[in-house]
Amino acid sequence: MNINQLFEPLFSDELDDPRYYQVYGGRGSGKSYTTSIAMLLKTYSKFKHKILYLRQTMSSSEDSTIADVRAAIEALGKQDDFRESKGVITNIRTGSTISFKGIRSAGSQTAKLKSLSGITTLVVEEAEELESFDEFSKVDESIRIKGKPLKVILIYNPGSAISSWIHKEWFKEGLPSVERYVDTMFIHSTYLDNLQNLNETTVKRYRDLERTNPTYYTNTILAEWTLEASGRMYAGWRHWSSLQEEGDTWYGMDFGYGGKDKTACVKITWIDGTYFVEEMFAESKMSISRTLSKMRECGIPFNAKIYCDSAMPLLIEEIRRGGYTSSRKCRKGNVEAEIKKVQDKDICLVGTEETQLYYDYMTFRRDKNGKIPHEPDVLAAMRYGINSKSPTKKTTNRPRRARRRRGFL
User: Fold this and answer.
1) How confident is the model at residue 368 (pLDDT cuts 50, 70, 90)?
2) What is the CATH code of the structural domain delimited by 5-221?
3) 312 falls in which pLDDT band (50, 70, 90)?
4) Which residues, other chains included, contact 377 with Cβ-Cβ below 8 Å and sequence gap of 6+?
5) Are 381 and 264 contacting, i.e. CB atoms less than 8 angstroms apart?
6) What is the pLDDT, as a whole number, of residue 402?
7) Strand pairing category for 262-271 and 306-308
8) In which band, very low, low, confident or very high, does the pLDDT at 82 lie, cut at 50, 70 and 90?
9) Residue 182 burial (CB count, 10 A)
10) How confident is residue 293, by pLDDT bands cut at 50, 70 and 90?
11) Nearest 5°: phi and psi at 378?
């Protein structure tokens, strides 16, 4: 068979091969089918591999993943070498197996994937559907048999960079992370790498999309990571890991109303025309006693000026009774107009990319009808603080220290 050289690493079967394989790309790239060919050939290995195909739900595996492996067996002309029974395909010549499982079935947890013992190769189809790195890691850590090449192959179409655990672990700003080259092979493919196997009408449709819908063509057909720029309410802000300089400092606070709403507090430091915003906390279902305790843990001074959600005057009074006597109502107006005021400011986020503030900054956008959805609570706290106080007009006389830019997508 004519296998694109991009996929050659999947066919290697040596003890010193990398553990992880990122097999990502767009539609029509042949990544899933070529991987199934590689897995079938692996069943003839001297290592007697035990291969597991894993997806979020087993029903979707039955529809496509197993079908790909069956088609590969037929394409190789090896029907006599394989037997299928109860979701397991066995190479009767070598004893190697290919099994198929779902992490969840009908929305509930399966039987904890008990039969992972002896697995040498894990293939995660549609890996982007797995809910978290923790869920993936539980399975990954079970692949640990000695004396055999161990591989974990993730197959997927890239999506949102900010919301993807895969991007967080293996990529940076849409590109493979250099630090992961030591244990990971990155294989990116598109339909352009698989033209010899595609119908001409399919190729024509993809090429037409390049002209008629370039965004869809880039994100879906070429399958590049989406860096969340289109439609965002806020963009272009700087991002620093920490801030040592002092300036005019105050706080903004939004109270949660129950459910998924969060009580959020941010610290705002104004230095020479720039608002440096740092998340103090953002938690749901916080009682007033927990809120006060958290404020003390974060080192918020009792005399700090705190601009709070004016819709909750009783909670503001409780905050004042708790020792923060300079807490007060924020200024409120039309939400869209108030957001516009924030958009016009020079803002720098302070902290790691793990904060709720950073996530909400990257993902807060208008809905498909162009309307502003529910504003994330930590961004509301920031808006209350920035729009409620005019900073003290003083500048430092000492030279400004360079701050290292990092983390902005």
Assistant:
1) confident
2) 3.40.50.300
3) confident
4) 254, 256, 261, 262, 263, 264, 282
5) yes
6) 46
7) unpaired
8) very high
9) 8
10) very high
11) -70, -30
Output the six-digit token pair for 298.
């974060």
pLDDT at position 34 is 94
pLDDT of residue 408: 35
Q: What percent of the chain shows pLDDT beyond 70?
A: 90
Sign of CA dihedral 189, 176, 405, 343: positive
d(CA 305, CA 86): 66
For every residue of 182-213, DSSP letters joined together read GTEEEEEE-GGG-GGGS-HHHHHHHHHHHHH-
- CATH architecture of the domain covering 238-388: 2-Layer Sandwich (3.30)
Residue with tokens 């250099």: 178
Angle at 231 between CA 348 and CA 160, to 5 degrees: 85
Give helix 31-42 / helix 66-76 axis angle, nearest 10°.
Answer: 70
More confident residue, 132 or 122: 122
CB-based contacts of 263: which residues, under 8 Å, 6+ apart? Answer: 253, 254, 255, 256, 281, 282, 283, 284, 286, 291, 377
Domain boundaries, the chain: 5-221, 238-388
| Mean pLDDT score, 177-186 | 95
Q: How far apart are the first and last CA of the chain?
A: 41
- Return d(Cα 24, Cα 327) in angstroms, integer: 51
Per the CB < 8 A criterion, the answer to whether 312 and 329 are in contact is: no
